[in-house]
Design goal:
It is a single chain. This protein has about 230 residues and is α/β, with parallel strands linked by helices. Helices cover about 50% and strands about 10% of the residues. Helix 2 (about 40-50) packs parallel to helix 4, helix 4 (about 75-90) packs parallel to helix 6 (about 120-140) and helix 9 (about 180-195) packs across helix 11.
């Protein structure tokens, strides 16, 4: 004999709200902070990354390290990145490293003294940072997404309105470094596809980095962690 169980309308509503809340929980944490270099990331990795017990940590850093205001020499940058990777791996999280994005040099040099880059210039400085990231990925056997090359090939980095990097035509800013909303969508999609292709964890993901990770600081609007979260929720 089966008993019928009747639930009150209020209880059914409460259960439905609980289910919706559970499904809406973010799978991704936006742990980007504007202006951070690798020294800053080392200071906050325990609180802002490891405390979340990530299954996957997406790490992109180096744009501030190479520029004049938060400059870290390349050898120290490598040591800092190695320490970050070792700490993350020790927590049993997988690591996905991403190379840093290209920039529109004339805008960059309005905010940073050209003399800072020596004879190499900012383009070669960025190339050295990205080669360091690739070398670290090989050394520590992490995942690697060469995001910088993807942006170079399709980003139209410059003065066009459809550039994936902010400029006067698409954002009324002489920025040249940070992605547009479409740029953030592109990053989110690139990370999402890499996760699927490499069968990486699809929840408990911490995106750790600087302002390019932070975006608008949200997990729902204009940041690559927000778009990644939407894709993983779908």
């Amino acid at each position: 004999m089966h008993r019928r169980v009747f639930l009150s309308t209020s209880l059914m509503t409460a259960l439905a709200m609980t289910l919706r809340a559970n499904f809406a929980d973010p799978l991704v944490i936006n742990a980007g902070v504007g202006g951070n270099n690798t020294d800053d990331l080392l200071k906050r990795i325990d609180k802002d990354c490891l405390a979340h017990k990530p299954a996957l940590t997406v790490l992109m850093a180096g744009t501030n390290d190479m520029n004049s205001r938060k400059y870290i020499p390349l050898e120290q940058y490598r040591k800092n990145m190695a320490t970050l990777i070792e700490k993350i791996q020790a927590s049993k999280s997988k690591v996905l490293l991403m190379t840093i994005l290209p920039f529109y040099e004339p805008y960059l040099l309005t905010r940073h003294d050209p003399a800072h880059y020596g004879t190499d210039g900012p383009v070669k400085r960025r190339a050295a940072v990205n080669e360091t990231i690739k070398s670290l990925a090989a050394q520590y056997k992490t995942e690697l997404l060469d995001l910088g090359t993807l942006f170079e090939k399709v980003g139209k980095v410059g003065l066009d309105k459809d550039s994936l990097i902010q400029n006067e035509a698409n954002s009324q800013k002489t920025d040249g470094i940070h992605p547009t909303p479409n740029g953030y969508r592109f990053i989110g999609l690139a990370v999402y596809e890499h996760i699927l292709l490499q069968k990486l964890p699809q929840s408990r993901i911490v995106c750790f980095g600087d302002s390019i990770t932070n975006g608008d600081g949200s997990i729902t609007k204009e940041s690559y962690p927000a778009y990644l979260n939407k894709l993983l929720q779908s």
